[in-house]
Amino acid sequence: MCHRAHQSDSDPLAEVGLKDITAHVNFTGIALAAQEAGWGVLGYCTQARFLMNCGLVSRMEQSALAARVQAQRLIMEHEMGELFKVIGLYKGEPWDAIGFAVGDRTHTL
Fold first, then answer.
1. pLDDT in tens, 48-87
2. CB 3 within 8 A of CB 19
3. DSSP H helices in the chain
């Protein structure tokens, strides 16, 4: 699925470089496949929660208005914040990944 200027289409080769390309992902399937291959899940959460955990809000406070407006799209529920998800995987020993410190939804996989 492709997105540009609040329009969507399914042709990733049209207007190359001018639109975002995304895909629907089965995160449960990815987590299970990773575990079968010897990997572990560090965390799973929304894009909004991940970016806020990583300090986006404090960086927004220090940014110009135009940059804050753009960053808000990344975390707003009705924009990209809830629709997009993040999964973290590890090999070896797990660590406390700051992006999953609050709002981890691994239990829903």
1. 999 999 999 999 999 999 999 999 999 999 988 999 999 9
2. yes
3. 27-36, 47-53, 56-61, 65-75
Rounded to 5, what percent of the chain is helix, strand, coil? 35, 20, 45
Rg (CA), the chain: 16
- The amino acid sitting at 97 is A
Structure tokens belonging to residue 23: 């895909």
Contact predicate 76/69, CB 8 Å: no
Contact 61, 72 (CB under 8 A): no
Q: Which among 28, 44, 26 has a CA at the least distance from the CA of 36?
A: 28
pTM of the model as a whole: 0.82
